């Protein structure tokens, strides 16, 4: 929910306050001399119980009248501000895509289990996302395409862990003539797995790599990051402990361009997965705001009810005036 035109509502309130101030101040300025009829012994009259009762009733009516005007003014301000809510159907739409992008080169073999445990923990943190899985070395292969079946995701990741723990190369990922651990090409392939480029969606890529490139890649890491930036893909890199500082610094510089970061691989700590899941949710909110005009509706009831209640209160006060 949000106030789309809050400044219009603020202007309505400001105008109301200006008019109220003018109504209180100007009549006194126009009167050159006191008005009314002189009455002798007015102090004794003011002490009469009947007089004091009339004064209290009049003061009460004026306070209620001021409250009624304030309610009407506030209701009009809410209407002018366009109080908007996103429909339940829109909130149920899956606006978040996450691609798990895993380097399966020889240097990553000792941490394969830790990487997949981190991925599984992240899947447990996420709820409504579509999740995909890609493995790469010299070439990239799809573990599974983007899906919102999280049970299937967990099963496929567990199966991938068993396969990788066998320490055999993943079929289709090796190409000795090209080299190994071609991170730029792997990242570029993973970015291209986001299958709805024309939709306003939150797109997050979790890249597990040590960034130890061996060979000639088609895409450099910088060029692959350009693809991510162009596709509004936020990249988080997860690196094993002991990764050379230069490789980490390069990853940090490139992921920062996508508003992501570099995290150290530690599946026993929930910090990493929590950081990524919070970033995914924040990115989704940006996507929803970008399409709010298509999936939102004005809520007029609060403003209308408040204005009508103020009008009714004002009418009731006037009708009770003697």
What does this structure look like?
With 322 residues, the protein is of the alpha/beta class. It folds into two domains: 2-27 and 42-81 and 296-319, no CATH class; 92-290, Rossmann fold (3-Layer(aba) Sandwich). It contains twelve helices and eleven strands. The strands form three sheets. The protein has a six-stranded mixed sheet, with helices on both faces. The chain crosses the membrane at residues 6-26, 64-85. Pfam families: VWA_2. Keywords: Membrane, Transmembrane, Transmembrane helix.
The total strand number stands at: 11
The largest sheet has its strands arranged as: 5-4-3-7-9-10
Structural class: alpha/beta
The structural domain count equals: 2
Q: Let me know the average pLDDT.
A: 79
State the helix count.
Answer: 12
Strand content: 15-25%
Low-confidence stretches: 88-93, 284-294
Helix amount: 40-55%
Q: Taking Cα atoms only, what radius of gyration do you get, to the nearest Å? A: 33 Å
Q: Give, in order, the helices and strands.
A: EHHHEHEHEEHEHEEHEHEHHEH
In short:
Helices cover 54% and strands 16% of the residues.
SSE map:
Layout (H helix, E strand, L loop, with lengths): L1 E2 L2 H25 L11 H5 L2 H33 L1 E4 L1 H5 L3 E8 L8 H14 L4 E7 L3 E8 L2 H16 L13 E2 L2 H9 L10 E7 L5 E2 L5 H10 L2 E7 L5 H13 L4 E3 L6 H20 L1 H4 E3 L2 H19 L3
Parallel strand pairs: 3-4, 3-7, 7-9, 9-10
Antiparallel strand pairs: 1-2, 2-11, 4-5, 6-8
